[in-house]
Amino acid sequence: MKTRLTSLFFLLVLAGLLLAACGGGAPASTPTPQGPVGDATAGKKAYDSTCIACHGADAKGMTGLGKDLTTSEFVKTTSDADMVAFIKIGRPASDPANTQGVDMPPKGGNPALTDQDILDIVAFVRSLQVP
Question: Collapsing DSSP states into helix, strand and coil, what is residue 104?
Answer without folding.
Answer: strand
